[in-house]
Fold this protein.
Amino acid sequence: MMTHHENNSVLKRLVGKSKTIREVKKFINLAARYDYPIIISGETGVGKTLLAQLIHSVSMRKERPFLHQSCSNIPSELFESELFGHEKGAFTGAIEKKKGKIEIADGGTLFLDEISDLSLQNQAKTLLFIDRGKFFRVGGTEEIKTDVRIIAASNRDLKKEVKSGRFREDLYFRLNTLDIHIPPLRDRKEDIPLLAGEILRRENERNKMKKSISSEAINKLLNYDFPGNVRELENICKRAILYSKGNEIKENDVFFEREVTSRKRKKLTYSQVKKTLQKHKSNISKTARSLGISRQYLYKILKQKKV
Ligand SMILES: Nc1ncnc2c1ncn2[C@@H]1O[C@H](COP(=O)(O)OP(=O)(O)OP(=O)(O)O)[C@@H](O)[C@H]1O
Ligand SMILES: [Mg+2]
């Protein structure tokens, strides 16, 4: 395991001061000490993959590989051969023997991303492996032993998936010894300024620049709901850097690709939009930007009045 000092420097990569982030840090320490499977849940872009990597890099498995396997948009048979590998001639196209990820990750960690998308059949195979620590390559007759820690992630609520019969309860119970939910960024807005600052610091270093961000721009970020969470914040900040003239990011350099959420959407009336449009001399892009909405959504509001 890592020394305290090393541990702290890894934890620094997780930015934020909210209760959530403090709890996530505690969870990492726990997950580093106890070698159990893990489930991480949360919306897209909240930091599930980052958390999985951090856990691995402070765990006793850190010197061994960390492998990533997506469970969505992958045909069942391909998933199987990716995970368990295959023998030469196991199926058409299997011209060579191939090691699967759980064999390569021996001693390390396998990150199963979007586990709720796994077919029931592959859920059964995964469960069998977790139970026995042994598996067969596709087309293989020899049982192979491997020691891999599973970290699973899901956008969906796995408990609900279990209730509706889409996810095996036994697999769920096998995985959820250590489980954590990362709430969306809009529920921990105090992290936004820190994250924006960290993103800016990183991008400044990368582009050899010294841009800062105005408090008005920060306020605008604080009023947005971030359906794409931290990933979306990163994109918005990078774009704001790109659009800003001078060395300071202004309010108008910050704009949102996605529509604002329904809560904010309701507040925007046709007349408000019309007024802002006039102020910007009918310039759609400028109007949308200053309202913090997408151009598509702006058109939608304008159209609504016409009918
Ligand atoms: N607390 C945080 N501190 C610093 N960076 C963060 C934090 N949370 C997320 N990020 C960054 O935000 C981006 C999105 O995070 P990540 O890819 O881990 O999300 P995810 O939950 O795995 O998303 P998806 O469900 O789409 O796979 C990454 O670049 C990640 O490094
Ligand atoms: Mg991810």
In short: The radius of gyration is 24 Å. The chain has a mean pLDDT of 91. The chain has 15 helices and eleven strands.
